[in-house]
Amino acid sequence: MAGGGDELKLLGMFASPFALRVKLALSFKGLSFEYVEEDLRNKSELLVVANPVHRKVPVLIHNGLPVCESMVIVQYLDEAFPGAGAPFLPSDPYDRAVARFWASYIDEKLFSAWVALFAAKTEEEKAEGTKQTLAAAETLEGALRECSKGKPFFGGDAIGYVDVALGGFAAYVHAFEEVHGLRQFDAARTPLLAAWLARFVELDSAKAVMPDVGRLVERGKMMQAQAAAATAATAAAKAS
Amino acid sequence: MATVEEEKAGMVLLDFWVSPFGQRCRIALAEKGLQYEYREEDLVNSKSELLLRSNPVHKKIPVLLHHGRPVCESLVILDYLDEAFPDTPQLLPAPAYARARARFWADYVDKKVYECGSRLWKLKGELQAQARAEMVEILGTLEAELGEKDWFGGDSFGLVDVALAPFTAWFYSYEKYGEFSVDKVCPTLAAWARRCGERDSVAKHLTPPEKVYAFIDVLKKKYGVE
């Protein structure tokens, strides 16, 4: 439970993997918070004031003070709530550097590969996006092997910084498979990641905050249809 | 050439002369008074075996080797230097909230400055005009964050200052390609840049602006830009 007098408010969006990271972090630390669902097409005054630079979710507001950027928030929670369970980052400086490196990799390479695949219009773009996605998953499989040292999570026996970073995508990965027909963490290609994912989504603290995959699939299919319609409209306009 | 023993002990920085990301590390090491061996990587022709082995994922500099173990990504290196050397001047302040703010702004510099600057010299016409408008906005946003303070870190030269300082050497090039004046568009930030240049750690490690400008010509040829 949050300490006396600590007010935590999270501005998020149900489909945002970055907002989910923060929900997971709060849940794993047993911190209670008020959740505000943002309509990103019609951003609230609160969001715009709390994150004037990016106007994005997630934003964690702690006793009125905003913290932005998902992994900055996760580190902040470690530092501002030292009594709330074990910290996500390990204590050794080198291990911390390794954890930060992989969290950065997940954002820069893994997520951007998925975005490229999602945005792919031509068969060529799709093939390239698929190639990048599979390569990134393979690299991350190596990272899990290295970091876990045979234990269940990147953080070892308990959930760590990289587990939270990747955990934000746990529901998204299932939805992506249904919408695009590609399994990112396939048991044959990436056995450790497949096992990690199955294990992660079963954790009580994860279950408590995971979004409904069905709802994500619905949204993903709708966005896919919209993108296809836009492409068709552009093609039609060019042809006429 | 370092011996295997030298490689394993102490610190080695794999870097590239003009890289602003590498310069962040050089500045931080200087601010902390830490000794290290600087190794220039030939990124144009061939990356060293040591670099490829130390950063197999990205194959990029900077890489800091400490007792033979590699730390990659410049901001990760800066955090590491604070944490591995707690008795040296710290780049991050103590309070959790101030740390979160510093990390946010270091991330902002990382996401925005180099990428927008690259578009400024790579692109033409409307896309270049867009890059120019964005660069002016980015500099303005940074200026607003700096406010009345001497440094982004407040009274002390901190993480955000170190993250941004190397890019002051690129301002001249941004001005030429963007056809604007940093002094006019963000005078407070321009004054901060001059203050940075007066620090030994920065003065010793920044590339002279005209050399950065000449280097961009090399990059343009490499990318086939007119």
Automatic annotation (TrEMBL), chain A:
> Which reaction equations make up its catalytic activity?
RX + glutathione = an S-substituted glutathione + a halide anion + H(+)
> Record's InterPro entries?
Glutathione-S-Trfase_C-like, Glutathione_S-Trfase, Glutathione_S-Trfase_N, GST_C, GST_C_Tau, Omega/Tau-like
List the keywords (alphabetical): Transferase
**Under the cellular component aspect of Gene Ontology, which terms does the record hold?**
cytoplasm
**Entry keyword Transferase:** yes
Give one Pfam family.
GST_N
Pinpoint the GST C-terminal domain residues: 92-229
Q: Name one GO molecular function term.
A: glutathione transferase activity
Name of protein: glutathione transferase
Automatic annotation (TrEMBL), chain B:
Q: Which reaction does it catalyse?
A: RX + glutathione = an S-substituted glutathione + a halide anion + H(+)
**Domain of life per record:** Eukaryota
Q: Where in the cell is it found?
A: Cytoplasm, Cytosol
Cellular-component GO terms for this entry: cytosol
Q: What does this protein do?
A: Conjugation of reduced glutathione to a wide number of exogenous and endogenous hydrophobic electrophiles.
PANTHER family from the UniProt entry: GLUTATHIONE S-TRANSFERASE GSTU1-RELATED, GLUTATHIONE S-TRANSFERASE, GST, SUPERFAMILY, GST DOMAIN CONTAINING
What this protein is called in its record is: Glutathione S-transferase
Could you tell me which species this protein originates from? Zizania palustris
Ranked from the top, the taxonomy reads: Eukaryota, Viridiplantae, Streptophyta, Embryophyta, Tracheophyta
